[in-house]
Amino acid sequence: MKSRPRIFGSATALCSFAALLLLPSVGSATVAPANTCFWGQPAAITNGSYPAGTNIDFPDTHAAYWYSSFSIAPGDQIVLHGTYPYARYFSFSLYGTVAGQPGSPLAALHDTSIVPDPGSSNPFMPGAFRWSAHRSYTVTVSGDPDPGAGLEQPNTLYAGTPGATGPQEVQLLLRVYVPNLGVDWSGGGLPTWEFDQADGTTSTGTIACAALGTGATQPDLAIPVAEYDQLLSFNPLTTAPAVDPPVWYAFFNVEYAEVPFLVGTPEAGLIATLPTAKTGGLYSNADSAYVYQYVDRTFGPDPNGDNILVLQGEMPTTPATRAWEPIMNGNVDMRYWSLCNNQSIATTAVTDCLDDEQVPVNSAHDYTIVLSLPQDRPTNAYRRCGVAWMNWGTAGDGLDRPRTDLLIMRNLLPNPAFTQAIQDIQTPGTEQAVMGPYLPTDTYETAAQFEATGCNGVHSS
Length: 461
Hints:
Layout: H1 11-21, E1 63-72, E2 77-83, E3 87-98, E4 101-110, E5 136-142, E6 156-158, E7 168-179, E8 192-196, E9 202-204, H2 205-212, H3 225-233, E10 249-250, H4 259-262, E11 288-296, E12 308-314, E13 334-342, E14 350-355, E15 366-372, E16 388-391, E17 404-414, H5 431-435, E18 441-445, H6 447-451
Parallel strand pairs: 5-6, 15-16
Antiparallel strand pairs: 1-7, 2-5, 2-8, 3-4, 3-7, 8-9, 10-11, 11-17, 12-15, 12-18, 13-14, 13-17
């Protein structure tokens, strides 16, 4: 198997280590700048938990998300001036309501597709110097419809609907993944905003927010509890929609996400009527693709339900960035990988996540992850034994099933040459065939069973 790309051991790595010694903090990121009328409060972990009202829409605990909603008319534009963050990845995404589904992707720009201002460089380009001091950019949100391939202006997101003459209600989402150690969640600061209206009026700050009618409160796309309960009612088993062994499903669209609740029930015939187009939804990231599965601690050999889940697979190569590595490594399978333990589609909250830099791998680039309650954590489920651990938590689905959880695995910006990413799944049911060893297998065990493998056995690195 491929070896993990490394830059440690080089002269530049020694410079990277020296820079770390000068940082104000090498702990986890802190919440970024104070709330603004445009960007609001980020969905990001503070002191081990999310600020009130932001742990929704399935956030990844290694990223921060800023939401802004506003009305923009043809001829209007919002101009954002910012600096490329010190982070693994960042992007701007526009969302709206399409075919009655809010949170549908409209347009997006990610870091490498954003051209730097004159005199600046883009630190996200493959092989780029990530510490560049000159790192500014300008992005425009236009109220006009997209003019079509080859006619778009650089660094521009088009929010307009063809044929529309009035203002369009849209949402803008800024994502920052894995900020460098000691840097806040924004990776160094949020963009400023300027509102240029078609009549020539220009405004900034709170005046621009008032003109735009901005709302910085994060929208909640959880399905109503009554609908969730109806989906659960299709199967009399209290572990549904979880099964043993767990089954991975690629996320195609919101409607097709009902499939795990229908399989094996009298309503299974409905599956054939669901759309399978990869249209996303739930404010999904255009640069990410997702597979998910439902799990339940009731499964396994422990009759009291104190079971653990062991996941094993092959880790795609990704660039190391957290510890201020100076060069953006482009010779990788994808930009980012993570596995998150979530509640349910009725709460869309997250409990815990692991990202690629937190999961140890062996010489074949294989990994082992243990999901358990803290009191059930095996004594060898530690990095020193080559094992990553994730907290199962007791929230369950966030409602009335404390042992049932939803696991979501992300693949972000895969290399086109890597053909086993989640993005390559085009047909439901082909997840394993497409991803091969990059789709992990799951086994319910007890802590004692896992501990019997030892620290230098099949789970070691």
